[in-house]
Each structure stands twice: as C-alpha cells, then as structure tokens.
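Most newcomers find our protein records easier to grasp once they have seen one. The structure tokens are whole numbers drawn from a learned vocabulary of backbone shapes. The record below serves as our worked example for the rest of this section.
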Amino acid sequence: MQFKSSIRTDGSREKVRIADVAGRFTKARQIFFYVLMVIYALVPFIKVNGKPLIFIDILHRQFFLFGFTYNAQDFYLVFFLLSGALFTLFYITAVAGRLWCGWACPQTVFLEGVFRRIERLVEGPKSEQLLLAQSPWNFKKIVKFIIKHFLFVIFACAVSHIFLSYFVSMDELLSFVRHNPHEHWVAFIWMISITAVIYFNYAWFREQLCLIVCPYGKMQSALTDDDTLVIGYDALRGEPRGKVSDSSRGACINCRRCVDVCPTGIDIRNGLQLECIGCANCIDACDEIMDKVGQARGLVRYDSLNGLLKKPRHILRPRIYLYTVLFFVGLAVFSFFLFKRHTFEANILRAPGIPYVLTEGKIRNQYLLHVINKTAEKAKFTFKFSGEANVIIPFLEIELGSLEEKRIPAFAEMDAKKFKGQFNIILTSTNTQTGEVVVSQIPFLGP
C-alpha cells in the first residue's frame, strides 16, 4: 500500500492540482457553496429594528444579533454560543463525520467555490496547469500569472471588506470606502492585513491549513467511531485491483481518478485518513468510472466503516445518546440565561468614599443608581425605593436612548437614634413600555 499526501515523507510539500470532476455531490456542493456565500455577503445589508442582522460592534462594546441588542454585560452569553457551536460540530462529526469540512467550512467554500474556479478559468484543466507550471517563464505564462493573482487579490479584498462589515457595520464601511484611508487608518490596516492573510491562504497555503493548522481534523479519531458516516472505499468489493480486461480483478480498475480529484492529494483507497475533508469528489469520480465500465456505483461512498466491512450498522449508540442528552442540557441552560436576561439594567451602587456620614443626628449613605437601556429603542424607566431610610434622588423617572446608560446620585438617611443595625435599601425599577421590573438592593450602613 502506497500512502499519498500533499506532504511528502521528508516534510516538503507537493502542490495539489485537482482534475475536473462532475456528479451529484459536486453539483450539490457548488449550489450549497453559492448559497452560503450569498448569505455571507447579504447579512451585513439586512437590518432588523434599524440594526444589522449580525453586528459585533467591538469598539462600542455592543452586539446586535437577529433583532436583539446586547451590551458588554451580556458577553457571558458568548460562552454559550461558542461552546454550543463547538459541541454541535462535535455532535455532527460523531454522526456524519467531516460533513462540516467538506460542505460548509469557509476554507472549503471559498477555495472550491471561488479561487480554484478562477485558477481553472485562467490556467485551464489540470493537464494544462501542469504543462504551464513546467514551462519556462514566457509572455503567456506571465500574463496568466498576473491575471490569476490579480483576480485572487480582488476576491480576497471583497471577502475581507464583507468580513469587516460584521464589526464596523456596512453603512460605516461604505463611508470608509468613499473617504481617504488616512481618515480611518485603523480599519484600513485591518482590511489590508485580512486581505493579505486571505490571499496567502487561498493562493498558496490552501489544503495545508487543514492539514497543519486546523485542530479539528486531528480530533477526528476521538470524535468518530466505526458507525460514523464517512467517505470510504469498499475494499471487499474493490480488491484486488486490476485492469478492465483482467477477469480476476475486483471492482476497482486502478484508474486513480479518485486520487486525481482529491483536494488534499490522498488516496481514499488507503482507508480513513486525517487529510480527508469529506468533500465527496472521489465519490463522483468513482461513480463516473463505474458508469463507464458498466459496474454498479458506490465503490467509494458515504458509509460507516462497519458498513464498508459488511458488519451491522448502529445509528443509535452510547455516544450519540450521551451527546443528545448533553446537547439538550446545554440548550436548556442557554435558554434559561437568555430568557432570564433583562432588557435593561438598574443597579444601585455605593458611591466612592466613606460608607456613611453621621451629621446633625442623622446617618447618611451615598449611592449611585446605574441604569442601562439594552434595547434598540428609547425607553422610560421609573424607580421606587423601599426600606427604613428615606431616599432622596433628583428624579424618579428618566428616558434613555438605545444602549444609553446613566448614573444618578442618590442619598438615603435616617435618624441615628432609630438605627438598630444594617438593613437593605430595595430599588424597584420598571420599564414603563414593557412593564418589565428589575429589583436590586444595597445595605444601609451605620455606626
């Protein structure tokens, strides 16, 4: 068995040039890639309640997701989103292998959906690309090189601009584009840096990102088992390999089409490998050959390792039960915190300085009322205090704009003779539009 990869045994790289392939999975993936790219490009333009559908405003520590508004105090929800997304990926991997890598990972989507297509358009199919690579630098080669890399830079620049719009908003980004870069040099440097990284990745690094940098593929052996759906070669049916005219051969005619179309340069017939991203190119290539030689499709197919070995398959198994339980537990916890979240915050804090003042027979505590409107619209809030002390505050009703916050000084005082020990001042704050109530409290201190 000869193992093949884009990384040679001495550590050097063998550049992968893939042959054209057509088939049901290739067509489905291309459509899916275009859908994902359209979503990626359109989301910054879509507004809900006057705000972008997804907008992570790091500069002002504000976040707008699907019509909901969040501020820095809600950042803990990001933990649930990230951990939930990671766990969902692990769950999908346990069931369906590297479906994410082959169908939805941005590395695959843009490489196969845009940059390889540009390369194919400019340099031709694999055979012509190999001839061009081996030919000396002449006018034709230089022109193709310039055109290809010019288009690479243009698309890298477009992808980086859209990416930035998720953090500065599309309106502001378009304003940046119309003005001198000197007026917004920080964003300009970010754009140049991201464009350079994208260009380097898709023009040169390519599958090396999956093989060397991305940790997901390296965790594959821990996330999958013999019942996980993977792309595999049916060795029982395919071996021994031989020419079409060989009557003693198995189904595999050793044409190597599955190797020629692999974006990571591996031979799927060597079994499940770390380098396999589950793109299904080898399935379409093999099916095409099987059709031509009049044999049944499916020599390379989506199946479990048990399925390929004709052993019983188990869709439901202990790890799937465990992952399902953990998934719903995580979803329940996230839902609890999400619905527990208030659309405004109203906290009563102790003012800086000494905790209390004793003057003219009265004990006085000084506080600050901190109010934040976390909605996308203006809102009015009323305040009510309860406790044994008399609370003095400049106003009991305020109006705040979207994500606006305000600190209001307040005093609580009582006769020193009546003070019998520490007690709490209770603040009840109400959003007059929604009727939502937030209750907070703080101790009243004395001698």
Remarks:
- The chain is about 45% helix and 20% strand.
- The longest helix spans residues 139-168.
